[in-house]
Amino acid sequence: PKNYIAGELTTLKQKFTHCVFLFLLGFFLYANSLQNRYVLDDSLFITGNNFTLKGFAGIKEIWTNDAFVGAHGRAFDLEGGRYRPLAITMFAIEYELFGLDPFYGHLVNVLLFSFTSVLLYLFLCKLLNFKNAWIPLLTSILFVIHPIHTEVVANIKSRDEILAVFFLLSALLFLLKEKKKFIFLGAGFYFLSLLSKENTITALAIIPLLLLIF
After folding, report:
1. Distances in Å between the alpha carbon of 104 and those of 38, 75, 86, 165?
2. Which tens digit of pLDDT belongs to each residue from 105-159?
3. By the 8 A CB rule, do 126 and 173 touch?
4. pTM reported for the whole predicted model
5. Which of 29, 63, 132, 192 is 20 to 30 A distant from 54 in Cα terms?
6. CB-neighbour burial class of residue 122 (10 A; exposed 0-12, middle 13-18, buried 19+)
């Protein structure tokens, strides 16, 4: 490209085109899951979760209990517990609005995954703008089409995984900005990632290395 934006290899118009392409690629690749029903794992957070099935009224209990209490009546004896209120709250809201209709759960998963692929692309553009302009796009395409993500997108219960990555990438984008005021936004998004699924705690080691190297 002839016109550069802040020294980056791709123009804003090209970035926008790439983002739209990645979003549509993710959406249409997984659109066939919109006709799917609930599966066994969904009973844990949706169809068999007493807090979710209360709709709005169950949100308080979702945020004050372990993730498995709503389905089993007690927390399992697991290391560190399982605290994932954000995804379960979304399920409760969807139940309040649409009842037990899996279409909307699948739709939200597909949309979130498509937006996550866009965030990955923007993150890589920010990280590698002094390298090759095609690396962020090709890497993001591989992320979208790789079959390893099929279960996460097609299984409504696995929204906690998608949300965790979605908010983690959002956090990293803000943390890479030069102005210090964005650190607080980055920290906020990272906290949302932790509320989605606890395994993003490993980013506490990754983030300092990211800032140190890049």
Report:
1. 11, 28, 17, 21
2. 999 999 999 999 999 999 999 888 766 778 999 999 999 999 999 999 999 999 9
3. yes
4. 0.89
5. 192
6. buried
